Amino acid sequence: MKETALMMIGAALVNNVILARFLGLCSFMGVTTRIDTAAGMGMATTFVITVSAMADWAVQHYVLDAYGLGFLRTVTFILVIASAVQFTEMIIRKVSPTLFQMLGIYLPLITTNCAVLGVALLLVEGNMSLIGATLFAFASAAGYSLVMVIFAGLRERLVLAQVPRLFAGPPIAFIVAGLLAMAFMGFSGISTV
Amino acid sequence: MATDYQRIVKDGLWDNNGVLCMLLGMCPTMAMTTSATNGLGMGLATAVVMAASNLLVALFRDRITQEVRIPVYILIVAAMVTLVDLTMNAWMHELYKVLGLFIALIVSNCLPLARLEAFASKEPVLNSLLDGIFMGLGFTISLTVIGAVREIIGSGTLFADASLLLGPAFKFLEMRILPEDTGVLVMILPPGGFLVAGLLVVAKRILDVRAGKGIQMAGAHSV
Q1: Number of structural domains chain A divides into
Q2: A19: nearest CA in chain B?
Q3: CA dihedral in degrees (A147, A152, A157, A160; nearest 10)?
Q4: Pick from B27, B222, B223: which is nearest to A22 by CB?
Q5: Is B12 exposed, middle or buried (0-12, 13-18, 19+ CB in 10 A)?
Q6: What counts of helices (H) and strands (E) characterise chain A?
Q7: Residues of A in contact with B108 (CB under 8 A)
Q8: A174 falls within a domain
Q9: Residue B69 has pLDDT above 90, yes or no
Q10: Domain housing A116
């Protein structure tokens, strides 16, 4: 129990997907201009990461390992992820049409969010059990959503700030992200997993 | 016609540089630039994938229908990545171990897919191949420069371990700029990646403004 809790904290905060592992940076820069969009994106991505991690785990164990097809991993995983994204899109359209409108083009693009493929590949390398893998994926995704929302909050304030013309837009966002990453380094040492 | 090629080369290397202007492919840009050698290796692997997939899509673009093009593009990129992945594992194993996850993640790098959609699906075969090569090289240069800045400030060396990772022929690149134990560790750690990338975008803007061009307000438009 204690190991599981530490593993989840490690995945969410210490080895944060965005700030420590550098996965999913495009969406981190792309959809964090408003808190509500960032939160919606975080939730959708969390769902996709968790579902596709479970599916990828099953594919890895029952198909790729069973038939010695390890070299097809990248190709199969990206197909599984694309299907998971399609599935999520259908659910969101039914459950919350407003959120569907808000996320728009960014929803199908979760497929090329490297956090999804990255977490799936990390699981395979970590040799985890199905439950461990699901919890790891969920915790990583929760850390992703947390950072997305925090960064969106920072950027909402940044719009009101006087920024030198040369730094306007992406550069100042990068520097803010750097400071946020420094803050998150404070978590290191809690868990080494 | 020659000017056409010149434009492609210039676009790829500087005017439309994948990292510094379009802000695409940020994940490997941040993660794999802890040293100039890593950046160079990562950039070259991506460049190979981009050139090959641009070529393939340009060859088959008349057969790929509008509705299924995105899955087809992703599969083509994934197949190329698998080839690069296996090749590097076999012949450049040291580098493969360092780059690890991020070789497979070239699939979900936005830059190759963006060039397929924006360029290779519309332009002739030779132009697309050139675009793939030079966009890839532009990416490589950005990664190497970011890596070099982080490595010099962070650990005082430049191209450390190049002979180990890229082969003995690259031994001449290795050098030590600052004396031992003078590095600023934070540059090697994750925050340094963001800081250096931000400052380099500013540096490119300054150069563009000096050259009499306006600031490109690109970026933040893709996932």
Answers
A1: 1
A2: B190
A3: 150
A4: B27
A5: buried
A6: 8, 0
A7: 78, 111-114, 116-118
A8: yes
A9: no
A10: 2-187
| pLDDT at residue B220 tops 70 | no
Of B102, B72, B76, the closest CA to residue B88 belongs to B102
Percent of chain B whose predicted confidence (pLDDT) is above 70:
94
Predicted interface score ipTM higher than 0.95: no
Question: How much is the average pLDDT of B118-128?
Answer: 88
Residue whose pair of structure tokens reads 């259908």 in the numeric block: A90
Yes or no: say if A52 and A116 are a contact pair by the CB < 8 Å rule. Answer: yes
Q: CA-nearest residue of chain A to B83?
A: A71
A181 contact partners, CB below 8 Å, separation of at least 6: A19, A20, B189, B190, B191, B193, B194
pLDDT given at position B17 = 81
Instruction: Judge whether B77 and B49 are in contact, CB under 8 Å.
Output: yes
The residue written with tokens 């190329």 in the block is B80
Domain extents in chain B: 13-206
How far is B36 from B152, CA to CA, in rounded Å?
Answer: 9
What residues of chain A score a pLDDT lower than 50? 193
Q: Which chain A positions have a beta carbon within 8 Å of B223's beta carbon?
A: 26-27, 30-31, 105-106, 109-110, 112-113
Q: Name every residue whose Cβ is closer than 8 Å to that of residue B96 and which is 6 or more positions away in sequence.
A: B85, B88, B89, B103
A157-177 confidence digits (pLDDT tens): 998 988 888 888 888 999 999
Strand B157-158 versus strand B175-176 pairing type: antiparallel
Q: Are B61 and B157 in contact (CB under 8 A)?
A: no
* Assigned token pair, B17: 């540089």
Q: In terms of Cα–Cα distance, which of B203, B105, B216, B110 is closest to B149?
A: B203
Does A143 fall in a domain? yes
Q: B106: exposed, middle or buried (C-beta count within 10 Å: 0-12, 13-18, 19+)?
A: buried
Residue A39 lies in a domain: yes
Backbone φ and ψ for B176, nearest 5 degrees, come out as -115, 120
Distance CA B136, CA B12 (A): 8
Residue scoring higher pLDDT (A107 or B79): B79
Position B222 confidence tier, pLDDT thresholds 50, 70, 90? very low
Under 8 Å CB pairs connecting chains A and B tally to 145
